[in-house]
Amino acid sequence: AILLAGGLAGFASLILGGALGGVAMGVAPEPTFRLTQGVLCADDARLEYFSIRRSYHGPGESEPHVECVAADGARQDVLLKAILLVLLIAFAAVFSGVFVILLIPFSLAAYFASRGIGGRSP
Question: For an engineered disulfide with 20, which of 25, 45, 49, 90 has Cβ 3.0 to 4.6 Å away?
Answer without folding.
Answer: 90
